[in-house]
Amino acid sequence: GSLAASFNSMAERLEDEIKSLERVNLELTTAQDELLRNSTLAAVGRLAAGIAHEIGNPLGALNGYIDILSRGGLEAAEEKEIIARAARESDRIDSIVRDFLEVARPARRPAFPVDVNSLVKETLEGLLVRVDFQGVETGLELSQVPHVMADEGKLRQVFSNILINAAQSMDGMDRKTITVETASEERPVPVKAGRRKGDVPAEKKFGQYVLVSVKDNGTGVCPADSARIFDPFFTTKEVGKGTGLGLFVSQSIIKAYGGEITLKSGGAGSVFTVVLPAAEASQ
How many domains does the chain have? Predict the structure, then answer.
């Protein structure tokens, strides 16, 4: 009777609503694809500048080593060590160029156990010859932490970017300090995408994570900039002093290995923390 007719009418209205929503969804998806295409095209013209920015990090170190060698007066063993470090920076330049050539077809590099403490110490020591680090007091507070599964070259690139940004944020200050801390802690393991509405929630799992924090006493990052700091091509630096690709690339690298980079910044100073699952947790 009337109840059945009312139900049928409601069902028809619902069906129309669903079709309407599907049309809107298709239009939104099409618009999003178009925006992504336009965004990509706009970014292509700036990729060359981005590559130059990324290469600038190891190139600065390489120039520093060349300067040390040109002064002379080194022992044979010291000279050999400087040459070895310069060769590593040259290899980094090659690696960075290859990374950008793979932007169109990103692939996760093979992961191996990495000693984070050793890598952090080595990376910081390699940067001390740069002009950016003149007058900077550096400190290491390294805890005993598990290895992480990653590509060592990519991790070195991430730590270099964060450390150099920290040093540059203190440009012109009387006292400059950078402290690198490592720690490990239990954290919830992110739930993989793919769950549907109505699925029974899985039991929350916890895993061991390694944290590498870089603290500086620089100018800090305002809340508006903090929200965009990891966006591609966003930068607060002067024109010609960076395109804003460093942190974007760094975040992409860390996310590929199941981690993230976070930022905490108040009125003075910033803390960038690299979070990665411990080796046994990332298997």
Answer: 1
- Other residues' Cβ atoms within 10 Å of the Cβ of residue 246: 23
Give the β-pairing of 206-216 and 136-142. Answer: unpaired
Q: Is residue 86 part of a domain?
A: yes
Cβ neighbours for 120, distance < 8 A, ≥ 6 positions apart:
140, 142, 159, 180, 182, 212
Q: Contact at 8 Å (CB) between 256 and 107?
A: no
Residues of the domain holding 231: 47-191+205-281
- For residue 240, what pLDDT is reported? 44
Q: Which residues of the chain have pLDDT under 50?
A: 104-106, 239-240
For the chain, the residue count is 283
Question: In this structure, is residue 110 part of a structural domain?
Answer: yes
User: For residue 148, what are the CA distances in angstroms to 2, 93, 208, 278, 280?
Assistant: 67, 24, 10, 5, 8
Q: Tell me the CATH number at 68.
A: 3.30.565.10
pTM: 0.63
Asked whether residue 10 is domain-assigned, the answer is: no
User: Taking a C-beta distance cutoff of 8 angstroms, is the pair 276, 119 a contact?
Assistant: no
Give Cα separations from 184 to 13, 99, 116, 191 (angstroms). 55, 29, 11, 20
Angle of helix 2-71 versus helix 76-101 axis, rounded to 10: 150
In a domain, 11, yes or no: no
